[in-house]
Amino acid sequence: MEHEAPKVAPIPADKEKIWKIWKVMLILAAVTAVEFVIALAVPLSVMPQPVKVYVYIALTIVKAFYIVAEFMHLSHERKSLIWSILLPIIFIVFMLFIFLYQGSAIYNLLTS
Amino acid sequence: MASTVVVVDDKNTKAWGGGTSPMKASYGKLMMWFFLLSDAFTFSALLITYGLIRFKNPAFDGDVSTFVFSQDYWPLPDMVFNAFPGSHALGVDHAPLVFVGIMTFILIFSSVTMVLAVEAGHRMDRVAVEKWMLWTILGGITFLSCQAWEWSHFIHGTEAGGSLLDGSIFYGANLAINQYGPPNFAALFFFITGFHGFHVFSGVVLNFIIFYQTTVGILERRGHYEMVEKVGLYWHFVDLVWVFVFTFFYLV
Questions:
Q1: Is residue B53 pLDDT above 70, yes or no?
Q2: Which of residues 59-98 of B touch A (CB under 8 A)?
Q3: Would you kindly state where each structural domain of chain B is located, as residue ranges?
C-alpha cells in the first residue's frame, strides 16, 4: 500500500489537556522515586520492614489508581462500567488473604 | 402539529431496555475491559502464588550485611537484582533496584506516549498519532531488551555462585535449581516476569499493527481512531501489571 498524505485537517491540540496527561506521568514518576528512597535511603531502624511493606502497597495502589482512572480513562466512564470492573476485584483481595494465610499455615506445619 | 400522534417505543427510554449502549462504550472497548479483568485474575493468581510460596519458606532474619545466598531461606530481592549492564566493568558490586527502576520509568513513559496517541486520535491528527505510536513501540522494545538482559544475568548468575543443599556450588538459575534460594524462587521469577514480558511483546505487536494501519490511512478513512484506544487500554494494563510486579517481586 502506498503512503498517502493525511486528508483530514486535524483539530488543534488543547494545551491544558496535554499538560494534564504529563502531570499524571510526573505523579507516577514521583511516587516511584519515593519508593526508591524508602527502599534505599531509609534505614530499618527508622522504618521497620513490615511498615515499609505496607507503605509500598499503599503507594502501589496510588499508582494503580492513576493508571486506571486517568490513563485508561475509567473515572470518566459510566458508573455501571466502573463498578463492573471494580467489583470483581473483591475476589482477588479475598484470594490474597486466603492464600497468604494458607502460606503461613504451611510454614508453621513444616517447622513445628 | 397538534394532531400528529408520535408513538415512542418505550424500550428506548430505559437504559437496559435494548437499542442503546447503556455503558456508553462501544462493543470493542467493553470487551477489551472484560478481557483485561480476566487477565487481571490470571496475574493476581501468579502474584498471590508467589506470596503463598514465599510465606511457606523461612525468611532471612539476620542483618542485611551478613546475607548470603542459601537454599534454607527466601532470598532478599535487593541482593539478587543488584546489577545493571556494565556495572561489573565499572566496579559497582551492589546497585539494588537501579536497573529495574529504569525499566519502570521506561514503561511509564511509553504509557504516557500511548495516552498522547489516543488524544491525537480524538483530534483526527494522523501525523501526531503516528509519532506517539512510534514512541510507544520504541518504549516497549526498550523494555523488552532490558528484560532480556535481566533474564540473561539471572540465568548466568554471579561469580561466587551459591551453594546447594548437597554443598556443591551452582551458578545462575534454571527451572529446577538456582543459586539464589529455594527452587521455586527462580521458577516464579521466570513465570511471572516471563508472562508479563510476553504480554509486553504482544502489546508491541498490536501497537505495530495499529501504527501500520494509521500510516497507510486505514483509520483515517474509517473516520475514527478507536482502535488506538483499544490497544491503548491493553498497553496501560501491561504497565499496571508491571507496577504490581515491581512492588511484589522487587521491593517487598
A1: yes
A2: 64, 78, 96-97
A3: 23-58+73-251
Do residue B53 and residue A111 have CB atoms under 8 angstroms apart? no
Which fold, B23-58+73-251?
Answer: Four Helix Bundle (Hemerythrin (Met), subunit A) (1.20.120)
Residues of A in contact with B244 (CB under 8 A): 60, 64
**Interchain contact B14–A (C-beta under 8 A):** no
Residue A77 forms contact with B (CB below 8 Å)? yes
**Those residues with Cβ within 8 angstroms of residue A82's Cβ, 6 or more apart along the chain or in another chain:** A74, A75
Residue B10: per-residue pLDDT: 56
- Predicted TM-score (pTM) of this structure: 0.91
E strand spans, B146-185: 162-163, 169-170
User: What mean pLDDT is predicted for residues B95-113?
Assistant: 93
Alpha helices (H) along A1-112: 15-40, 49-66, 79-86, 89-111
Exposure on the CB side of residue B138, measured as CA atoms within 13 A? 9
Cell numbers describing residue B215: 500510516
Task: Compute the residue count for chain B.
Answer: 252
Chain B: closest CA distance from residue A51 (Å): 11
| pLDDT bracket for residue A75 (50, 70, 90) | very high
Residue with cell 491528527: B125
